[in-house]
Write a structure and sequence with these properties.
23% strand; Immunoglobulin-like; alpha/beta; 2 domains; 7-stranded mixed beta sheet; 9-stranded mixed beta sheet; TIM Barrel; single chain
Amino acid sequence: MDNAGGTPQDVVVPPVEGVAGGGTAYGWSDGGLHGTNPLKGSIDPLEVPTADLVHVWCMPSTANVGPQEIPRHLEPVNLLAARNERESVQIAIRPKVSWSSSGNAGIVQIQCTDLSSTSGDRLLVGQSIMFRRVVSILGVPDALVPLDHPVSQISLIPGETTAVWVSIDVPSAQPPGQYEGEFIISAVKAESESRSQCLNRGEKHRLYTELRNCLDTVEPIEGKPLDEVVERVKSATTSLRKVLLSTFSEFFSDNGPVDMMDEDAISNLSVRVKLNLTVWDFILPATPSLPAVFGISDTVIEDRFGVEHGSDEWYEALEQHFKWLLQYKISPYFCRWGDSMRVLTYTCPWPAGHPKSDEYLSDPRLAAYAVPYNQAVSGNDAAKDYLQKEVEILRTKSHWKKAYFYLWDEPLNLEQYDSVRNMASEIHAYAPDARVLTTYYCGPSDAPLAPTPFEAFVKVPKFLRPHTQIYCTSEWVLGNREDLVKDIVSELQPESGEEWWTYVCMGPSDPHPNWHLGMRGTQHRAVMWRVWKEGGTGFLYWGANCYEKATVPSAEIRFRRGLPPGDGVLFYPGEAFSSSSQPVASLRLERILSGLQDIEYLKLYASRYGRDEGIALLEKTGVYLGPERYTLEHMPIDVMRGEIFNTCRPMHE
């Protein structure tokens, strides 16, 4: 996809810089897209080509498409995806003129066809293909608010660009091949209404009476003989069919419902964006190769959604968040903080003996799970007895190898480090093979382990051994010194099961990879490139829903004071944008998924040619050389993925 382009037709608008200096993803250009026949007078969008009313162009998933994004030339979208992979692209729309009598520029209708291959295989809209509107948070494009499928309408604002995020999820069993479809944009009248809204009073009364009769036919069936129930359902079905045919006849042909894509909603006046997708014969593993464990604050859920800890509604809310995050190849854990950064973490709110426990912990999409040191929900058992029983049950399960205990967040002094050691000793008394994870960025401040802070940091494994198995260090400590990784790793004993994981939190800051609001899209995606290049075997993020406290689901979303914008918030409550209770993903969360998928590509390449060659590919394509040297543009990513596709695909493709 070529992203060269120029300024709008009538007005030159400078780019808007993001919160952290990320700005727009593609630099400012003085070239122009010049119109030839300016429209005059009243405009009827049903008589004028949509291309004369709006600019439409495509942008990659790493672009931050803000309101002042400048138009570019429209070109077909060409994507590459493995099976069990999600690929995304953005469709940008900006009005050239206004055709609405209201305050907005006008309304466009957007829809997408299924993607079809020459062999007849399909990727269906609403199942494999979804589109969402990009909404700005603090002036930066971030929230992805779901739109209706397969047809939706968007109101455009004069002088502003609107972006639609299109995602394609390729199922694991999808046949490889070339898939094609279209994304269709049509300008419509602002006052246009559906047929049902335009019915006169007499038609509405007729429709009401017929539907009421159908309801009266089927409602009193409780306790009735089966034969009578069948007859009533048949009668209601016949009546409903008559209602549909008499009221909505334009949507039906002799062969049944007509595809909306062939109806008058779409005309030759529409703008059509060609979507081409190559699905190749590589299946991303169901269980992610890199465990990426992300925290979800249970207290935030309790406060905002008004659910009492341990209630049925509480379990339902946690389950919704757990299942929703799995689609992002993330292994969630719920958490609540205690005094001095002691943290209670648990992936499953039910005890190990509950049937729900196996349902949660056996899910193949879950790469790792947190076991609580104390009960997530208080019961009658003493805490020590509870821990012992939990461990005894979990150790009999095949998924026990995914278990870890996360007890303390960033211990700072000897007392806190000793607390970790004491709790770990108790756990290992019941399960010598248990893995304890400890996050840290320094050694104990009141008992220096070495002359300099970094040397003391490096000596933490020796100080904590054998009470920690997963040493999870802050990327902030490394700065831009990748060479320091070997100093950390040299202190570990992988032969004894010790692992090195990393995390980002408030730091590192721009220009280093992180997930702050306003950073470049490639900067977000680069977090996982860095993990793979440095050789970490896991990743932790402290919070995905840690916005300021609110007691109403639809309350304004506010980031926590003292943190960089976006830190600790990767998705939003759906109620803040609509009546839907489904969480709303951020662009940053989608880019995290893309980064985790990149790791699977690099792992495949390294399995064929060796890890050194994998690192060489990452560097020679210009994708990632170091925390201050990574691509600012999307093209190198496509080049790297294309090289892996060309060298690793089966010869018969």
